[in-house]
Amino acid sequence: MDVLNRMLAVAHDHPSAPAVWGEDQAVSYAELATRVRRIAAALDVCSHPKVLVYLPQGAEAYAAMFATLMAGGYYAPVNLSAPPARQRSVIDQFAPDVVVTNAAALDKGGLDARSFAGAAMVDTRRLPPGGMDEAKASHDLAYVIFTSGSTGEPKGVMVGRDGLSRYTDWAIAAMGVTRGDKWSQYPPISFDLSVLDIYGALCAGAALYPFTSETDRMMPARAIRRHGLTIWNSVPSVVGMMMQARQVTPENLASLRLATFCGEPLSPQHLDALFAAKPDLVVHNTYGPTEATVSFTLIKLDAEDYRDHCRATVALGDAIPGMGLHLIGGATGDEGEIAITGPQLARGYWRKPQLTSQAFRPLAIDGGETPAYFTGDWAERRGDDVYFVSRMDNQVKVHGYRVELEDVNAAVRAATGRAVCSVVAKGDIHCFLEAAATDIIDEAELVARLRGALETYAIPKFFHQMDSLPRNANDKIDMKALLERVQKDAP
Amino acid sequence: MLKSPYELVAEALGCRPETLRPDSGLNNHPMWDSFGQLNVMMALEENYGVPVDDDSIRAHQGMAGILKTYETLTSDAGR
Lengths: 491, 79
Hints:
The complex is a heterodimer.
Chain A: H1 3-13, E1 18-21, E2 26-28, H2 29-43, E3 50-53, H3 59-70, E4 74-77, H4 84-94, E5 98-101, H5 103-109, E6 120-123, E7 141-147, E8 155-160, H6 161-175, E9 182-185, H7 193-202, E10 207-210, H8 214-218, H9 220-227, E11 231-234, H10 236-244, H11 250-253, E12 258-261, H12 268-277, E13 282-285, E14 297-301, E15 318-319, E16 324-329, E17 335-341, H13 353-359, E18 360-365, E19 368-382, E20 385-391, E21 395-398, E22 401-404, H14 405-416, E23 420-425, E24 428-434, H15 443-450, E25 462-466, H16 479-489
Parallel strand pairs in A: 3-4, 3-5, 5-6, 9-10, 11-12, 12-13, 24-25
Antiparallel strand pairs in A: 1-2, 7-8, 13-14, 14-15, 16-17, 17-19, 18-19, 19-20, 21-22, 23-24
Helix pairs in contact in A: 1-2, 2-3, 6-7
Chain B: H1 5-13, H2 34-48, H3 54-59, H4 63-78
Helix pairs in contact in B: 1-2
């Protein structure tokens, strides 16, 4: 069932049920639907409008997303915390017909209305009266989410509306979501993990709790307790943060029935801590890139059996119905690059046909050819389980976010004019710079300059100066030697 | 005896104290990211009794705010 129709049906059947909680009060489903209809009417400036959602996570942003679908359009959400240059790159590439925003969001994002030249502006605080009664004919796309690109320019993943609706139907059934559920909304709306929260909760009548306050974001387990949340969805490193803050306690997790993870490898230590605090918790580990509409595998774990599915990381699970996970190019059929097939595949990259044809290629299966997305993730099968092994390129994950190391190197090179090479060890980016020992680099000043070019999570945590970077026999910078050096020195 | 702010923050971030300056803070020091800020707040709570709430997190996102809290605590203790 289409996601818009699902949400409107909930609003029709349960108008007073809480849809999105703010600090003190909830927006009901009836209020959400009214807001969706009013924004949709304001978006009706052309057929299939391209809509930029320039709002912080919360009821207005979610309403803008559904409103775009109602207006027959598709949207791109922006991370208001991203450096202005990054935001502008997304805006320039997407070239929206309409921007949904308000003064507070513009202030938070650091841009002004002139940054959106040529686009119609819809102010969520000054909506015209009236609303859209009937949804317009839908577009093939639902949204375009921009992720890190190897050239330093973000690339937009075009996700289809059918794929989104299909994924949402599956998620609601697999997670057993009910109207009684209270669901966290932790990931930023520019990160596709938020898609599960927004559509999973609001298409099933659950109450969504956006984590917007500094305290909730820093101490999420305390917020789980305060709100009595039943469903938690995040990248695994947030559990690491909870563990670091000694928050993974029976008291904090008492209300939780389901924790679901995606975006980076889940570690057995995360599960040890979660099940020790909450033995009857169910954990869903899922895997999937933005190009497969959030995720396409699932393994359900409980305290009794989770150790059977742990190696260095936790198993990725099986492909969900209709989707396919294939290991391609390995010496045996039990290892290889993960290729994905099925109806959740994205339509490619926004206005980047070459990149699209590189990553989305036909896969020979059973004598025929099927469209597939080649992830660049190498995996191995052990028994019935598939485990992530490593990336095949320079892309890494930091707190679940994609980072292209060449993107980092280019920014540091531009800021310093020096030869640089970055590697990742234990989730931290280490950047090596070629500089004489007497030539002291001011790290604080360098970080300040990098903030203008890179997302916060992509800024290296460690800088190392070397007289000269090690080279291999082909005179290329020897990344293996650099990695060994940081792994040897790491605590 | 309270730990000095530079010592406390350096320990929380896992960096050398000499890399910290009065204007160091969240996202302008290599180690001071959101995870680093969590460690800083935990250290402030444990050592200076600073509560973890929105106002306090905003007030202690840099050395300047932490130095101010330290000055208040030490001057109160001296009275």
